[in-house]
Design goal:
Blueprint: E1 4-7, E2 10-12, E3 18-24, E4 34-39, E5 46-51, E6 57-59, E7 67-72, E8 77-82, E9 91-97, E10 109-113
Parallel strand pairs: 2-10
Antiparallel strand pairs: 1-3, 3-8, 4-5, 4-9, 5-6, 7-8, 9-10
C-alpha cells in the first residue's frame, strides 16, 4: 500500500520561507499527476500546486509566484518551496494525486504563519 509522509512544516513569520517534503513509499511520483493540498481550520481541503509526469506545473492563484512544486524521482520525494508566506497560508499541508483516485492521506504537516 502506498504511503505518503509529509514533513517540513513549522512556525514562520510573515514573509518567511519553508520547504515541505512528501516522501512516497513507491515510485509513484513520476507516473501520477501529484499535488500539494492544504486545509485550514473550518475550510475544505484545496489543491494549491500540481506537477504532471512530464514536469508541467500548475498553481492556485493564491500561491502563484510564491510557491514552487518539484520532485526528485530517484528519492521518490516531492517538494513545495514556499516563499513570502502570509498568515492566510496557515493550514495543514498534504500531498496526494492531484486528480482522480487518491492514495491514503498522510497526516500532513502543519504550517503556521504568524508574527
Amino acid at each position: 500500500q502506498v504511503q505518503l509522509v509529509e514533513s517540513g512544516g513549522g512556525l514562520v513569520q510573515p514573509g518567511g520561507s519553508l520547504r515541505l517534503s512528501c516522501a512516497a513509499s513507491g515510485s509513484i511520483l513520476s507516473i501520477n499527476y501529484m499535488g500539494w493540498f492544504r486545509q485550514a481550520p473550518g475550510k475544505e481541503r484545496e489543491l494549491v500546486a500540481g506537477i504532471s509526469p512530464s514536469g508541467r506545473t500548475n498553481y492556485a492563484d493564491s500561491v502563484k509566484g510564491r510557491f514552487t512544486i518539484s520532485r526528485d524521482n530517484v528519492k521518490n520525494t516531492m517538494y513545495l518551496q514556499m516563499n513570502n508566506l502570509k498568515p492566510e497560508d496557515t493550514a495543514v499541508y498534504y500531498c496526494n494525486t492531484g486528480v482522480g483516485q487518491k492514495f491514503p492521506w498522510g497526516r500532513g504537516t502543519q504550517v503556521t504563519v504568524s508574527s
